[in-house]
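Appendix C reproduces, verbatim, an entry submitted by the partner laboratory led by Prof. M.T., so that reviewers can inspect both the input and the predicted structure.
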Amino acid sequence: MSALEKQLQLGRLPPRPPGPAGGSSQALPKMRMGPGRKRDYSPVPWSQYFESMEDVVVESDSGKDTFRIYKSGTEGPVLLLLHGGGHSALSWAVFTAAIINRIQCRIVALDLRGHGQTKVRNPEDLSAETMSKDIGNVVEAMYGDLSPPIMLIGHSMGGAIAVHTAASNAVPSLLGLCMIDVVEGTAMDALNSMQNFLRSRPKTFKSIENAIEWSVKSGQIRNLESARVSMVGQVKECEEDTSPGVPKAIVEGIIEEEEEEDENEDGESVNKRKKDDDAETKKEPMYTWRIELAQTEKYWDGWFRGLSNLFLNCPVPKLLLLAGVDRLDKDLTIGQMQGKFQMQVLPQCGHAVHEDAPDKVAEAVATFLIRHRFTEPIGGFQCVFPAC
C-alpha cells in the first residue's frame, strides 16, 4: 500500500472542500482533455464524511474474518449500507453526510467480502448465501443479542444481497428494506453484456487522480465529489509492473491530446526521447481494480434470479429507488400497483444513483423512515411524500 493510500485510509489528508457535481451522461470510448479550467480530481479521505472506521472481527472454529466498516451517528435506527459489485463502503460517503443531517440515525457502511479493506479467508466466494451470512455475522459481532432496529439499504449487487439477507432472517431486528437501482428482469437481461462492459474498462491507471478522472468522464460516477472519495475504495496499487505493450488508452484511462512531434537531426522524436527518459527516472506506482469482477460471473445468476419475488415477500416496509421507470419488471410492476412497496424514480442519474444524487436519495430514505415513524427529523428537515 502506498503512502497516499495509507493516509487516505487513516483519514489524515488535510481537509478539502467538496468538489462540484459533474460527469457526462454517456460512457465515452475515447475521452480527451479539453481546454478551460482544470477540475480537481485529487482523492478525499473517508473522514470528511464518516465519523469513525472500525474492523469487525468475525470468529469461527475455522478461523477469523475481518470486515471494514465506516460509522456515523449515535442515536436512532441503524442504516446498514451495502455497496454494489466492485465498489466499496466509501461509495456511501456523500449520502451519509446528507442523511445524518436530516434524521436521527446511525450509519454502518460495510465493505463486503472481496471488496475494499475487508479481509476474509475465501474472498472469491461471493455467493448470495455466503454474503448474506456475512451480514448476519457482522451484526451479531457488533451488537450481540441486543441488536438495534436495522434498515438494510443496498445498491445493485448490494441491493440483491440485502434482499437475500432479509429473506433468510439473518438480521432478526430488521426494520425495513431498500433496493437502489436493481431489478431482477433488467439485471438478468444485462448479464449477457456484462463481460463486454468489464472488458471495455481500463485495466490500470497511472494514479488515483487518473482513476477518479476516468470514473467521472466515463459516466460511471457523475458526481465528482463522490468520485473523489469513492474511487479510493475501488482501486489499489499494482503488485507488479504493467506488462509491456499495453496501449496508452488502457494504461492511463484518459487519452490526452497528442503533442506535435519534433525531430532532431538524427531523425529521433524529441518528445519520444523525453518520454523514455522520464519513464526511466520516474517510476511511479500504477493502480488497478481491487476486485476482478469478470471472475465473479458464476455468482451473478444467484444474486438476481428470483429477486423480485423475494423482495415482494419480505414482511417489512420496502422502498425501491430507480434511475428510470423502464427498469421495472412484470412482478415489481404488479407489486407496485398493489401497494406492496414504495417506489421513487430519480431521473437524470446513472446506475450509481446514491452517488450521482446523494441528497435526493437521502431525502427519499429519510422521508420513508419518518413516514413509517421509525425515526424523527432533525435540522428542520421537511418531508415531501412521493406520489408512488
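The chain is about 35% helix and 15% strand. Additional entries are available on request from the coordinating office.
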